[in-house]
Structures
1.
Amino acid sequence: MEPVIQTLPSRLVVGIGGTFISALSPESNNLVVIPKLWHEFINRVEEIPLRKNQTAVGCVWCLDSDEKGPRECYYLAGAEVTGSGEVPEGMEAREIPAGRYAVFVHRGSLDTLGETMSSIHRTWLPGSGHRRREAPEVELYGEKFQPDSETSELEICVPIV
């Protein structure tokens, strides 16, 4: 799995967020937390003013954690917006900074997304010569995304130095 290295523009995303334990930790709860966030977001997406397009955006911030404990992260299920209009109650707006990203394409259903993420973080990144930079990882769910389809595609953008 080889990414395309790109410089991506900044994005303003509005959505619903929450904390979870990373899939790379034995105590992982991402498969419980993240689907709930998406379910709530999908039911409320029409409330978001100034949505830019039909692409949904998932953002992951890794939070500080004790090296001996689980890796806590923050996930935002959202949509890109064209401006800082009114943010619906229970949602938040966050800016995703511009910068260099390794952009991977996950092909297949969401059932295999964990395998793709593991390959990126446990195999590609350590052997790539690149380092992660302080910015969220971004998932772009565009026109080719179909959750249960084997032909589905989504982009995973890993911030790198």
Note: The mean pLDDT is 92.
2.
Amino acid sequence: MSSGTNSTRTTLSGTVARLSPLALPFVFLFLGGLGLTVAQSFGWLLPGEFPGGWLEGYREALRPHLLASFGLSLSVALVSAGLSVALGSVAAYVIWKLPEGLRRGAVVYKVGLILPHAAVAFVILILWSQSGFLASLGHHLGLVETPGDFPTILFGGNGLGMVLAYTYKETPFVILLALAVLLRTDPRLVQTARMFGASEPVIFRRIILPRLRPVLNTAFIILYLYTFGAFDIPFLLGESSPGMLSIEIYNLYFNRDLVNRPTAMALLVFMLLFSVVFIVFYTRVARRLEQGERKL
């Protein structure tokens, strides 16, 4: 027992020693950037004089306009990540049930993984804007009198365009993760359930979903936090007011006076703290729910 433990420790220390020349620069840059962000949020280490107090940036970050941006970021992240996980898990199950030949053809779902986020944003613009393809098609089919009468999907103040873009981009990611789990699942479990008269919704809920739950929880955390702090799609599809929090931070940092920099940095600190709290809270709740189901 003791020799095995010592061997494991030796192997671990050797791995850390080999990786340290590569890891240390990244750790230094991360901690340096984090330290500078926190310092500037208090008005310290700024390029010029800051007339406000050391908590002025945090007080400004709590303005109603920025709180509305925070709420918009939360809602867009929640809806898009939730839709992506739901659609991706169902699509993975459908693909898993396909015959081998058709399953290979279903690889087309990976197109969304290949496209950059900016390209996905332009696809949504081309399809859903009031001067886009669907509006023109509706006009030619007589569904709307003019393309301008097409329902306002983009830039309507509710973030729906961003939700569409993120759902299209992120659903293939969930399919990829969920399908990897299902390919290791014995299909005879489903066949046996069908023999006993179980319907497809029951099979998915009682057999498939418990096996997918760990990877779906991980995917939801990744997608939620990425969408919460992303910049590219909100820059192209986001509303001007309120904007996503990342856009507000960008505007405060680059497009205004240096006096607004502590506010931008305070918002970054808030985003970091929220991300850490969200990960801890979500993982604990998911673990408790899983333990409760096992007891049942």
Note: DSSP finds 13 helices and no strands in the chain.
